[in-house]
What does this fold into?
Amino acid sequence: MQPTIPASAAPPTLQVRNLQTKFFTRAGVVPAVNDVSFTVSRGKVLGLVGESGSGKTVTGFSIMRLVDDPGRITGGEILFNGQDLVKSSEDEMRQLRGNRIAMIFQDPMMTLNPVLRIDTQMIETMQAHTNISREAARQRARDTLGMVGIPSPDERLMAYPHQFSGGMRQRVAIAIALLHEPELIVADEPTTALDVTIQGQILAEVQKLAANTGTSIIWITHDLSVVAGLADDIAVMYAGEIAEYGAVADVLDHPLHPYTNGLLGSVPSRNKRGEPLRQIPGTTPSLLRLPPGCPFQTRCPRAADVCRQPPPMAEILPAHEARCFRPHLENAGVAA
Amino acid sequence: MSETMNAPAPVAAGKREKMIEVVGVSRRFAKRLDFAGKLAAKLGAPIREEVVHAVDKVDLTIHRGEVVGLVGESGCGKSTLGRMVAGILPPSDGSILWKGQDRTGLHGKEARAATLQAQMIFQDPMSSLNPRLKVAEIIGEAPLFHGLTKRSEFGAYVDEQMRRAGLDPSYKSRYPHQFSGGQRQRIGIARALAVQPEFLVCDESVAALDVSIQAQILNLFMKLRRELNLTYLFISHDLGVVEHLSDRVVIMYLGRVVEEAPTETVFARANHPYTQSLLGAVPRIEARKKAFVTVQGEIPSPLNPPAGCHFHPRCPHAFDRCRVEVPALKEVAPGHKSRCHLNDLPNHGGQPV
It folds into this structure.
């Protein structure tokens, strides 16, 4: 247990500053992550929300330093407890990954080896990072499986991944991520492929974990309603940039960016039954052919001449940032 | 068409024309034994054919102009039922009546007409569109074959179908891979509507789409319903989408219908414990740091379903009777059916548990 430090003095677990990740493809340079900044404090959950192609997964992979060629982190800092991961060597990263920073993928089979028993995989993971006896590692593996709600963990340790259902497999992947009590978990759409009842079970476990162990979590998803109940803060991504960033209640109740506003408006439960849903016209632009200025301007109902300039990320309301020249101030009850 | 109906009028359900009637329909899938298996079984090995009861004695009526939402978790049989209703999969037992006539009894022209009038829209538009055909061919092939358009009017006919689905007709000589996910789904919709159906089965048709695109497609479905007086069976696991679109909701669990009611009733007064736990598990955007509470356990294997009520191993209210006796789907209020023994207990009387 750490001594109680005043909240302001405790350094945040993760601070991402002006991160840029680009893919140098034959068709051109794709700015997949552009000037992304956010902070995750100890025991907090950040929801990173966006549609497909918005750069949310590449952001997660950049933090893990798992971006492969032709992609490259081209700028910015990723401060993990003060250490800049962008400048860390591959060896240092290998020591962090799976140990102090863990990732959970959408498809648990990206974590699991199909031809090894669960116990082998879990014990191997532990012995790779700590000097722990096989028996102690086994004990820890059993406890962790129990913690994520897997019944009869002793038997399940002896099983192969294909003998688990999709929901159980995802729990095993989460258990492996938790083995070393990491300080940060990057979870990339881990419940998207699961049924709602199973998703509910996993969200409940994750919530308990963040509260009990002080683990910080980045929860990447396309589903605003999942992070509404789970996260403390939300960052909404569009075309590689963070469009809006703030506390859950601020972003979801008083969205400032027209994109967030449109997304929230198109959620069926926010519309009157049977009436046309409010929709955002058009589709996400290709990152290879972004319009100059605000990437959302072609779909934005509030777009004006000024939007042809790139809008800066600005703290429009206290602790509530948006990248927009013409934000929905009226949503927050402020006269424009 | 012999009779013309106006937009879905709020007529009492019993008086409305029945479009599709599903009567006691079951569908089993058997895993046949290979030669070695047969031989081993002959010699006394404990090997038997495995049979999955994907759909188990389902009754369902869909009236003209209605949107029925079919909800359930993966493996509950909702897609199998949808395929049978659309006429692309024959049932093992029971019958499916199309406007009062058994579809299997129809022949020739009538059979073809019945098949054409029920069309299906799939989840993954990429795997349901032929990647080697141009959009115009994908959309126009069936109507041309069935004589709904002539070679000379083909271009104009395809243009009209594309415009109706919100596609720019100038894209008609492109291939499916040149479109985005939402546009591909529009191609699937245009193809289904090109043969002028009256009834659409949408199987998770918006599940693969981004939220902003999903809203566009849902709006298109609603617009087409008004314009063409379409009837829908809308299959989805997303209760929010079903709530928005449907007039009536049917909930399935492990091959059986467990609850059926008008949409408002299901969301306000769900009767079956499974429906209640399903509703409780739906993430809501209004929720803030809520404690997720949800039903324990997972859907059991349909190869070896639990005896009695299929839901009893996960049900918080299960009692002895649930473990042995299959509950019947009974009316608990007008138009509201539920398959639960709790409703027979004196102090429940159709009230939510």
